[in-house]
Specification:
Elements lengths: L1 H5 L2 H13 L4 H17 L2 H14 L7 H18 L3 H35 L17 H9 L13 H30 L3 H18 L2 H25 L1
């Protein structure tokens, strides 16, 4: 990206080096997130699930990557129930997607359980932290709210006005992109071919995943060498 924007090879290498070897978890999170998406769209769903779960180990918001698995499961269920008239296949796709999404959330749950056991259960029972008494004790949410001031609309303050001005070009581009995408989506849903387009996308992805798999490679090799093997075997029997 740096090469395309700046056309400078030296700056490109420096930016890649700083991002990959910076003393922060963002690079590791990006590695597992992008790798998980690559394997997900390649058809290797188990590997994708593992990598997306590891992204949640690097950063807590990696648990949101389970949304990609949920969306794919909904597409498969829609295709099975509406197009192929196979309701059991739709249920199987939804159950599989739910289990894979749960696995992506496991690192987040494990961290919360670790913090609760060490601080609330095995810690000082006389001075329990406020989050230990909550109905849903989440350590990370308490840290963000208590120490970092993170909360709904809590960032919108007068003293943050220079930061909003600094981010206004990117925010304007984001708002324009959302409005433009919403208009296109509205036009797409108004068309009568929305059902066919969804099915075509699902079928195309399934075909691509099948063609890139090892099974397709073996079958193609057997088809190409099948007649030759039969003739060779027939010649041996005749001899």
């Amino acid at each position: 990206m740096t090469n395309h924007v700046l056309a400078m090879t030296e700056q490109q290498h420096v930016s890649v080096f700083c991002f990959c070897f910076g003393r922060y978890s963002e690079s590791l999170y990006a590695l597992f997130s992008l790798g998980g998406l690559f394997y997900l769209f390649s058809g290797a769903r188990t590997v994708a699930m593992i990598m997306l779960a590891l992204s949640g180990s690097a950063r807590s918001n990696g648990a949101l990557n389970a949304g990609y698995i949920c969306f794919e499961a909904l597409l498969q269920a829609y295709d099975a129930a509406i197009q192929k008239k196979r309701p059991m296949w739709a249920v199987q796709a939804l159950v599989t997607g739910f289990l894979r999404s749960t696995c992506v959330f496991l690192p987040f749950f494990a961290f919360q359980a670790y913090g609760y056991l060490n601080i609330c259960v095995h810690g000082d029972t006389d001075e329990l932290r406020p989050w230990c008494k909550a109905k849903l004790p989440l350590l990370y949410s308490f840290i963000q709210s208590h120490y970092w001031g993170v909360g709904f609309l809590r960032y919108f303050q007068v003293k943050q006005l220079p930061n909003f001005l600094l981010a206004s070009p990117v925010l304007s581009l984001a708002v324009y992109s959302i409005v433009h995408y919403t208009k296109l989506l509205h036009q797409l849903f108004q068309s009568t071919s929305i059902h066919e387009q969804i099915i075509a996308i699902v079928d195309g992805r399934l075909v691509e995943a099948y063609e890139s798999s090892d099974v397709a490679t073996v079958l193609k090799s057997e088809i190409s060498t099948g007649p030759h093997n039969k003739k060779q075997g027939y010649w041996r029997t005749e001899v």
